Amino acid sequence: MKELGEGGYGRVLLAKDKITGQRMALKTMDKNRTSQRSFLQEFCVSYFLSSHPNIIGCNGIAFTTIDYFVFAQELAPVGDLFSMITPYGIPEDSVKRCALQISNALEFISEKGLVHMDLKPENILVFDQDCHFIKITDFGLAKVRGTVITSRCGSKTYMAPELRDMTITDGLVVDGSLDVWAFGVTIYCLLLGEYPWQVAMPEDEGYRGFVDWQNNFHMDNPPEAWRKISTGIRRMFGVILAIDFSKRSKSTEILKYMNESWKEEIPDAITGQEDEDPIKSSSVQSEVTSISHLNTSQRSVTNKSLSYFLTTDTSVSQSEMTPLPQKDDMEESTDHIR
């Protein structure tokens, strides 16, 4: 029907089944840039994980044309999460809803022995403007946990320090902690509408300040970039963004903080809003979406906590929010697996 987007791999097209009328997204991959093995791997991983409510649906349709490999996915009517981020982030309740759903999906991916490797707002699709229903997509870089890689892959701003510091000689064993780091950076972007750093390397001033803070942790004296986040939530970031990956928590760590305020209040004079602060929490309904995939530790959180942030609303209104200035750059290198 029309083109929805274009990237280095190919295009995403809107299509409709002539018999049923069902609309879907067709992901096309240029054969000059994608091997058949890579195509089949992404298709199979997507199909394997698609039963989860917070992972994009994949209906098993795949085919080739002269120039492209193609497979069909569920259509997300609003677009990706990146396009919804304003200069002040998104409302706190929406951030919490996103965090719960992403955490749920990451636990499921981990339970299946996989690592996404490229989690970021651009790869999270949205089904309603208030983020009651979101889904992770794009498993083109996904790896089996325990795989040894010898070159970097993914998006540099969301890349964990151990991946940035990896050497070809030593390689790196792929682990779910890589996704948890990207999850932490994603939450920061959603909360504040900006990146905490451009790349997790000592040369980056923002990252260097974060490392110094974590090595000499004083909750009341964080770097400037972290003062917009409430005191208790800084502790949450300290464990999901632990520089030592062996000390990094699981994504479910965020469940302990659902009843706390995540943002410091910003005066109206700063935001330029007199009647309504655009980053204040929006009201939400109190119905729970499916939590059947939550593990035992997740269920220890009260139903009241979960129901406050999750709803079953799946309206399809299109967001008109202003995006971040630019999308994150991808690493161009290709993985070598042994």
TrEMBL record:
Residues 312-321 have a biased composition (Polar residues). It holds the Pfam family Pkinase. ATP binds at residue 27. Keywords: ATP-binding, Kinase, Nucleotide-binding, Serine/threonine-protein kinase, Transferase. SMART domains: S_TKc. InterPro entries: Kinase-like_dom_sf, Prot_kinase_dom, Protein_kinase_ATP_BS, Ser/Thr_kinase_AS. Residues 1-263 form the Protein kinase domain. Residues 312-338 are annotated as: Disordered. It comes from the Eukaryota. Belongs to the protein kinase superfamily. This is Protein kinase domain-containing protein. The lineage of its organism: Eukaryota, Metazoa, Chordata, Craniata, Vertebrata.
